[in-house]
Design a protein that fits this description.
globular, lipid metabolism, phospholipid metabolism, transmembrane helix, CDP-diacylglycerol-glycerol-3-phosphate 3-phosphatidyltransferase activity
Length: 192
């Protein structure tokens, strides 16, 4: 397994760690930042999520720089992103920080796209993430991070940055999903 793929796997390993800090009732207390009180466990979870998300850029950078792009990496990298995003969304719904319907839209799109990728892989094709799909992922990460951070520092000025970002992420999720299925309809047509 090459370095970029190891980084991708490490992102997947961080998922249960940040979920423990996010959802377990740990006796870590709270901290006030910019006029907002946030549980320390949630702050740690947010930092771990942001760090794990940053490894997505890092593995792609090394894969291109060191010419280590592999079919395994093209498949595993988007899967790791989806697992990370899905775990965070479910946690946010559990904490009542995100409406369930938004999580359902985002997760449904991710499962549907993964399904098409699996069908393509069975035929020997690998579908890499599109620029629109990557943009969607960036906004999902920003929106989820802002929600996990209780909208800090924007909470100090009552600016709903977290809500704006998650709405943009949801819209991009829908648009990129439609774009993905239109561009890859030939894969589904082969199955029918």
């Amino acid at each position: 397994m090459n370095l970029p793929n190891k980084i991708t796997v490490s992102r997947m390993i961080l998922i249960p760690v940040f979920m423990v800090f996010m959802l377990a009732d740990l006796p870590l207390g709270t901290i006030e930042m910019f006029g907002t009180v946030i549980p320390v466990g949630h702050l740690i979870a947010a930092c771990l999520f942001i760090f794990a998300s940053a490894t997505d850029w890092l593995d792609g950078y090394y894969a291109r720089k060191l010419n280590l792009v592999t079919n395994f990496g093209k498949f595993l990298d988007p899967l790791a992103d989806k697992l990370l995003i899905t775990a965070a969304l479910i946690g946010l719904v559990q904490l009542d920080l995100l409406a369930a319907w938004i999580a359902i839209i985002i997760i449904s799109r991710e499962f549907a796209v993964t399904g098409v990728r699996l069908i393509a892989a069975a035929d020997g094709d690998v579908i890499a993430a599109s620029p629109l799909g990557k943009l969607k992922t960036v906004f999902q990460i920003i929106g989820i991070s802002a929600l996990m951070l209780y909208n800090i520092p924007f909470s100090a000025i009552s600016f709903p940055f977290d809500q704006i970002m998650i709405w943009i992420a949801t819209i991009l999720t829908i648009v990129s999903g439609i774009d993905y299925f239109v561009k890859n309809k030939h894969i589904l047509a082969k199955q029918g």
